[in-house]
Amino acid sequence: MTITVLDGGMGQELIARAGKATGLWSVQALLDHPDWVSDVHDSYFAAGAQIATTNTYGVLPDRLEKQGLSAQLAQLQQLACQLAVASRDKNGSGKVAGSLGPQGFSYQPDLAPPALQAAEVYKNICQLQYEYVDLYIAETMASIDQARGALMAMSQFDKPGWLALSVDDKDGTKLRSGEPVKAILPLLKEYSTDAVLINCSVPEAVSQALPQLSEVGIPVGAYANGFTGIADDFNHIGATVDKLTARTDLGPQAYAKFAEQWVTQGASIIGGCCEVGPAHIKALTKQLT
């Protein structure tokens, strides 16, 4: 089986460069230090990544509105895409995935708008990204309805659409909404989804989730985070990631071991999420390709 290597987390790498977290997360770097974004993309390609994910996870109307930046949505989306494309071109190979982050807030599907409303927002973002990206990836979708909104939008464009689901850290057979992971299967078929991944959950939960997708019939992937878990007060726009604690037992070799397990479970697209950096991607590239 051929393995496609994704990049790792963008936000934590940018925070490391800035020395602090802000309520805007990685969007702050687009405003102040776009060269840092380029540097992170370059670092992942150098480590062996084959796909650069655009720094657009948090470039969403609801997040920008809270900061008085609504008018800059298109500009920030296009800048993030241009930076990823430039890094890909500099590398000489690879693809660019346009990131669609969760509306409402990460890990809080109850705060997300209904699917039809969300789909209109995602449709506009897909249009803004269209001329730059090779595929779309809806990330950290934590409920069936949240996933539906993203799939409705992506399916309207003639580019591959990937769906990445975030699962319960203590029971990876369930989405963070409490719904069974298997409940996503009819939706994937309905919208002719091109790949389904498990993301932004602890590696152990990812390992629990992947067998739930064994009958899906499309490529499966995995990219875990390196947090100990999600704090209860990390639940609103403006919350900073310094509320979350990084694990100390998930170095590059340990992460690569999890990646090996995911491949045996059928995953063919492997990368990393928050707290998984270039060194981790280099280790799993060496291990898997």
Brief descriptors of the model:
289 residues, 11 helices, 12% strand, single chain, TIM Barrel, 8-stranded parallel beta sheet, alpha/beta, 8 strands
The proportion of residues forming helix, as a percent range, comes to 40-55%
CATH superfamily: Homocysteine-binding-like domain
Total helical elements: 11
- CATH architectural name: Alpha-Beta Barrel
- Specify Rg, calculated over alpha carbons: 17 Å
| Structural class by helix and strand composition | alpha/beta
Inertia-based shape: globular
Concise structural overview:
This protein is an alpha/beta fold.
Structure description:
There is one protein chain. The chain has 289 residues and is of the alpha/beta class. It has one domain: Alpha-Beta Barrel (TIM Barrel). Helices cover 40% and strands 12% of the residues. The chain contains eleven helices and eight strands. The protein has helices at residues 11-18, 27-32, 34-47, 61-66, 73-91, 115-129, 144-154, 185-190, 203-209, 252-264, 278-288, and strands spanning 4-5, 51-53, 95-100, 135-141, 161-165, 195-199, 220-223, 267-270. It has an eight-stranded parallel sheet. The model has no long low-confidence stretch (mean pLDDT 94).
Which secondary structure elements does this structure contain, and how are they paired or packed?
Elements: E1 4-5, H1 11-18, H2 27-32, H3 34-47, E2 51-53, H4 61-66, H5 73-91, E3 95-100, H6 115-129, E4 135-141, H7 144-154, E5 161-165, H8 185-190, E6 195-199, H9 203-209, E7 220-223, H10 252-264, E8 267-270, H11 278-288
Parallel strand pairs: 1-8, 2-3, 3-4, 4-5, 5-6, 6-7, 7-8
Helix pairs in contact: 3-5, 3-11, 6-7, 9-10, 10-11
